[in-house]
Amino acid sequence: MRFTARMQQRLRPAIAGLVAGAVGLALSELLAGAVAGAPSLVSAVGSLVIDLQPPGAKQLIVDLFGSADKLALNLAVLIVALALSALLGVLGRTDHRIAIGGAAVIAVAAALVSLRDPLVQPILALLSAAVAATTSGFVFRRLAEAPSRRAPAAEMPAWGRRQFLGNAIGLGALAIVSGGVGRALLQRQEVADLPMRAALPAPVASAPPLPAATVLVDGVSPLVVPTKDFYRIDTKLLVPRLDAGSWALTINGMVDHELQLSYNELLDMPLVERHVTISCVSNEVGGDLVGNAKWTGVHLRDLLDRAGVRTGATQVVGRSFDGWTAGFPTAWLSGPGEGAMVAVGMNGEILSPDHGFPARLIVPGLYGYVSATKWLTNIELTTLEAFDGYWIPLGWAKQGPILLQSRIDVPRGSAAAGQVPVAGIAWAPTRGISKVEVQVDRGEWQAAGLGPAISDETWVQWVYRWDAPAGAHRLRVRATDGNGVLQEARTTPPDPDGARGYHTVTVNVS
């Protein structure tokens, strides 16, 4: 391809600007990964985008990208940043100060945005901006300078083009490696002071032992999901690494006595264990944003009793370290959610950072967006009228009880003719499951066998033995909860209060 003089005049500074921006961002990411308290400028801007999202954006993004939504947003911010860098390169082709000054302004703006995160240290935020701006400015000057000032851009000698491309490729590779190392360091899951309490204290009330048979058929979801496989949905692009030594939980608002507990003080209280199924309200029919785990923690009622809840308090608000909030009715704690806890452990181990270390709220029967506050630092007692949690102004329902749902795990796609196990899970936390039925094509609904349930707060496995003839078949599942209420057939999207409908799969039998 032959470039015209005009194209070369723009292409070289555009590439120079793009590479310069990439190197600056990469080194700032490396600094963020190597030094605690230094921000990731990319993630800081992404977090701002999340907080500025319009109503309906959350479900659209989850529908498009699923659990890869955070990766998609980080990539989008990075692409926009590199496109701006290339544009600055073109604008500054005759006056490098335009490109260098523009990059500095963007870096400083991103650093200021990062100060919204309470874990970011201001001096390190400014240092990160300085690293990004200085290195990108230096790289741009070196790349944007023509190899021969006597030759116009259109007549750049071949050796000059090769030298420029070689330098650009080399610096681009450096940016990729540095940025990759920085991002890997940022995503570390270690908690530096974990040895302070390397194991959970023995609970005063242990969870009942699991049934002997925990898997009905191959491929069905286990009764308890391993921590590493448990779904994660939250607004954080990077997993917060909170220091348990300086962490504290405050209970205030409409209480008689404001209460503050350190991490060790919380762990020294009587701990209880219980298996609870939790779900994200964004979970589609048949989706995997639901999980069952064994949680260890302090009864929320015990903590509230110590603080003394005043008459008139109708809402419990959980607040994360960064101000994220979720609220639910106090009445829930006297009914279905009496087992609510401030959890410090998951599946027998101390909470991992991505699941809320040092502590989080677990409230049986409620979707996470109104209850499951991770990285918990504050519990406030207020009224339902006085405060709305994070997601409510964005169009989600004020109250979010988990809807009755069921899912087909196997078979998927194809099966051999003969007896085929159709199996999956069903859940209605706090109400339990009394019946699951399967429909093949347009036939009668057939009862499935239920596996042993841990409790009414957890999902249950089910299996239906199907004599499958050859051909394409449609399978549907529906459940009935412990109160005799049948799952709703009408189909609704997840917003504003959860998805409804029967999970349906097509199986080709040969």
How would you characterize the overall build of this protein?
The chain has 510 residues and is an alpha+beta fold. The protein has nine helices and 19 strands. The strands form four sheets. A five-stranded mixed sheet has the order 2-1-10-5-6. Strands 3, 4, 7, 8 and 9 form a five-stranded antiparallel sheet that branches. A hairpin with a 5-residue loop joins β1 and β2. α1 crosses α4 and α1 packs parallel to α7. The longest helix is centred in the first third of the chain and has 30 residues. It is globular. The relative contact order is 0.11.
Topology, please?
Blueprint (H helix, E strand, L loop, with lengths): L4 H30 L6 H11 L5 H9 L3 H23 L4 H19 L7 H23 L13 H29 L61 E6 L5 E4 H5 L4 E8 L10 E10 H8 L7 E6 L4 E5 L11 E6 L2 E2 L9 E3 L13 E7 L22 E6 L2 E3 L2 E10 L5 E8 L5 E2 L1 E2 L9 E9 L2 E11 L21 E7 L1
Parallel strand pairs: 1-10, 12-19
Antiparallel strand pairs: 1-2, 3-4, 4-7, 5-6, 5-10, 7-8, 7-9, 11-13, 13-17, 14-15, 14-18, 16-17, 18-19
